[in-house]
Amino acid sequence: MRAWMLERTGPPEVLRLVTVASPEPGPGQVAVEVEAIGINYAEVLSRRGLYGWAPRRPYVPGMEATGTIAALGEGVHGREIGERVVVGTQHGAYAERLVVPARRALPAIDGFSVEENAAFGVNFMTAWVALMEMARLRPTDRVGITAAAGGVGTAAVQIASAYGCRVVGMAGSDAKLHLIRELGAEAGVNYRRPDFERRLAEVAPDGALDVVLEVVGGDVYRACQALLANFGRIVVAGYAGLDYSLWNPLSWWRAWRGAPRMNVSDSAVASTGVLATHIGYLLPDEERLLSVWGALTAFATGHGLRPVVGSTFDFADLPAAHRLMESRDSVGKLVVRLEGARPASLSL
Ligand SMILES: NC(=O)c1ccc[n+]([C@@H]2O[C@H](COP(=O)([O-])OP(=O)(O)OC[C@H]3O[C@@H](n4cnc5c(N)ncnc54)[C@H](OP(=O)(O)O)[C@@H]3O)[C@@H](O)[C@H]2O)c1
Question: For a tag site, which of 72, 92, 329, 332 has the least CB within 10 Å?
Fold first, then answer.
């Protein structure tokens, strides 16, 4: 089968399309024939060597895909060949086929297209865990979402808005603010404008936020933290602004300075909290994940929420999806389709 391999860190061109043996399911596992892959910013960070949860190279990246069950491992009962599923995994999804524990092959969502099923899992789970499990959102909360036009961001804006919250979406360009408002936010602010902090304070309902889902870091994190109301919670789920190079000591300082942190004394004065989450580390806790998945899918389907698929790519063009994501010009989720992929070239 064909798969994209990461052997060394660097720009998107370091990803190599190779042929490898098709994996067969072991006991308790299923093999999934992949139809579409969801691209995540974490995979861009892994490719650059900046992601702590990445396995040792060389490996096939890719954390989520949708497709059909193609083979059952020993001891797998109650599952069927041909069943449509979505899967989350640490790596291995940039391939025509992958193997996962049977319990982690979740039923694809009825009524979603193949692209939407590829786009849903990681983004909506991250937004849901941050907002509902960590921040314990209430419908009366005023909610700030950063990178709000991206994959996780568009999920979070929809979830918080559907829950009844007043939402302020933040993004890195004016062009993205329209989408954020269309998804339910009452205001949008561009954090790359010099008057960002003042504008954020102006549009936040009564000048404050109760909950923030923060994935950018640096000045964006600090501005959001400064606006937290009493009992406010900021949930850190990413650091997209991380700018770090192993060989540049100045970048070490920049990365350290931009990293989200808190001062407990200051938090005591305002009664605020900083929380952090990473759904990857929850993967082994299958019971919890399944219960969270059940609550999330019931909420999403009940409120008619759908992932925003911003762009789709052929499998053979997968590095172009990385390029678009790191350009900051992407909106919503980037999805790679297996169907219609051009004949494989074995390296870029
Ligand atoms: N904790 C978890 O379990 C978990 C799971 C999934 C994702 N995440 C995190 O959530 C964030 C969003 O992930 P995603 O996959 O949905 O990606 P995404 O939001 O679709 O794309 C990344 C976005 O980050 C923003 N960004 C801010 N500073 C940037 C920079 N210096 N370089 C590039 N982009 C920058 C850009 O939007 P603007 O130009 O609008 O700023 C860009 O579009 C990432 O930080 C990711 O690591 C965390």
Answer: 329
Cα 236 to middle of ligand 1, angstroms: 12
- Which residues form the pocket of ligand 1, taking CB atoms under 6 Å from any ligand atom? 40-42, 122-123, 126, 147, 149-153, 171-173, 176, 215-216, 237-238, 240-241, 277-280, 325-326, 328, 330
Q: Which residue matches tokens 């979406």?
A: 169
Testing ligand 1's pocket by substitution, the residue of 328, 331, 336 carrying the most ligand atoms inside 8 A of its CB is: 328
Question: Among residues of the chain, what percentage have pLDDT more than 90?
Answer: 92
220 CA to centre of ligand 1 in angstroms: 13
Superfamily of domain 2-109+308-337: Medium-chain alcohol dehydrogenases, catalytic domain (3.90.180.10)
Q: What is the pLDDT of residues 60-118, one digit of tens each?
A: 999 999 999 999 999 999 999 999 999 999 999 999 999 999 999 999 999 999 999 99
124-280 CATH pick, 3.40.50.720, 1.20.200.10, 3.40.50.620, 3.30.1240.10: 3.40.50.720
Cα(216) to centroid of ligand 1, in Å?
A: 7
Cα three-residue angle 68-69-70, rounded to 5 degrees: 105
Tell me the C-alpha to C-alpha distance, in Å, between residue 12 and each of 45, 56, 214. 11, 18, 26
**Phi, psi for residue 302 in degrees, rounded to 5:** -65, -30
> Helix, strand, or coil here: 55?
coil
Helix (H, G, I), strand (E, B) or coil at 207: helix
Beta strands per DSSP E along the chain: 2-6, 15-19, 29-39, 64-72, 84-88, 97-101, 105-107, 142-145, 166-171, 187-190, 209-214, 228-236, 273-276, 309-314, 333-337
For the beta carbon of residue 248, count every other beta carbon within 10 angstroms.
Answer: 12
Q: Ligand 1: distance of its center to the CA of 148 in Å? A: 9
Domain ranges of the chain: 2-109+308-337, 124-280
Determine the distance separating the centroid of ligand 1 and the alpha carbon of 115, expressed in angstroms. 19
pLDDT tops 50 at residue 346:
no
**For 261-273, what is the mean pLDDT?**
94
